Amino acid sequence: MANTLCVETGIMFFSGKRKGVGLVSYLQHIPSRVHVSHVDDAVSMEQTEDKKTQFLFVFLDLETTGLGVDSDITQIACICENQRFNRYILPKKRICRGSSRVTGIKVYKSKMYVNRKHVGTVSLAHGMSDFISYLRRFQKPVVMVAHNGRAFDSKVLLNSLRIVKMEEAFAELVTGFLDTLPLFRALYPDLENHRQQFLAKTLLNEEYASHNAIEDVRMLKQLFHQAKLNHKPVLEPYISLVKDVQDVLGFQLCKKQKLSTFNVLVERNVISCTMAAKMAANGLTYDDLLLKYESDGANGLRTFLTESKGDGKPRVTKIQQILDDILKYFEEQRVELNGMKFFY
After folding, report:
1. How many whole angstroms separate alpha carbon 18 and alpha carbon 36?
2. What is the pTM of this model?
3. pLDDT tens figures, 122-142
4. 88 phi and psi, to 5 degrees?
5. Distance between alpha carbon 63 and the CA centroid of its chain, in Å?
6. Residue 4: phi, psi to the nearest 5?
7. What burial letters (b/e) apply to 307-332, b meaning 16+ CB within 10 Å?
8. Which is more confidently placed, 308 or 163?
9. Do residues 298 and 286 make contact, with C-beta atoms less than 8 angstroms apart?
10. Contacts for 298 with CB less than 8 Å, ≥ 6 apart
């Protein structure tokens, strides 16, 4: 008989801060008196109205071209019950040296090699279509389980699905993402680290080919079930809804796009990378500074950068040296040509 845990009415999930836009909370309201039964990879959510919804845990891992949430996927693997999914995807972006060293994945003349062995690849659109078809097999709502999934895998996956316009199809099949990294940290607080390879060696006395996605998901499933989580009411706080992850991803991509507009100021040592990130987090771009300088002059731009946002803190900074460097840059770039102002 399956063990059952009871979750009383409450609000679970995490809260986080987005710099520049204030506190944003991600909440899932759990219905009154929800019972959760865990059987292998299936979780049953049973409400008092005798309506039962089964959720399947699908274990996920990605290998990618880099560490950014906009990295390209090079390998995607899943396992649920006894059904496996594994695809190598030919990336459009260059694989960074660190990623290649860890995964053994390299691309040469549009062919992919894993540890010097050629492997067949598909396009991103083909790979994501196959992935959606794999999820449809289960005919039940899915919770994707990934190690460090909240910070990385969930966002890279959703960004890739966004690129090929398959986000909606995914959201119809998947309820959320469960991140096992903070979960295992909570379960095993005395361990020196919680990398998956270390957990496998410490808890299962097993070594395996880590950073190969199909091997990683196989091991993650073993670790998950070895922890006997059906005995512990600990899963809900580590699950993020798909919509919540999409919102955070959208903010991060927007911030990165805005951040890139400040490259000229960073490259010329006008501002630091940290200051550029702060401006981008506050929703600013280089063009915003340029337009303010053009319309209101040096004093207007200085006021714009220093004025309070309403919480007593300046929009960007009140440090005079930083302000002076920014104003000096714009003043030096302005030239008169036919009575009009141009900036280079």
Report:
1. 32
2. 0.72
3. 999 999 999 999 999 988 889
4. -95, 130
5. 13
6. -125, 135
7. eeeeeeeebbbeeeebbebbbebbee
8. 163
9. no
10. 327, 330, 331
Phi and psi for 56 in degrees, rounded to 5? -105, 135
CB 185 within 8 A of CB 172: no
Q: Please give the order of strands across the beta sheet that includes 117-119.
A: 105-108, 111-114, 117-119
Give the position of tokens 């929009």. Answer: 315
Contact of 50 with 69, CB cutoff 8 Å: no
Q: Which segments within the chain are labelled E, that is strand?
A: 4-7, 10-12, 15-18, 22-25, 28-30, 34-39, 42-46, 52-64, 73-80, 83-88, 105-108, 111-114, 117-119, 142-146, 174-179, 239-241, 334-337, 340-343
What DSSP designation does 204 have? Answer: H
User: Are 306 and 314 within 8 A, CB to CB?
Assistant: yes
Q: What does the alpha-carbon distance between residue 43 and residue 45 come to, in Å, rounded to a whole number?
A: 7
Q: Read off the pLDDT of residues 288-319 as tens digits, 9 standing for 90 and up.
A: 999 999 899 999 999 999 998 777 889 999 99
3-state SS string for 17-58: EECCCEEEECCEEECCCEEEEEECCEEEEECCCCCEEEEEEE
What the block records as the tokens of 108 is: 């040469």
Concatenating the DSSP letter of every residue in 286-344 gives HHHHHHHHHHHHHHHHHHHHHSB-SSSSBSS---HHHHHHHHHHHHHHEEEETTEEEE-
Residues in the chain, total: 344
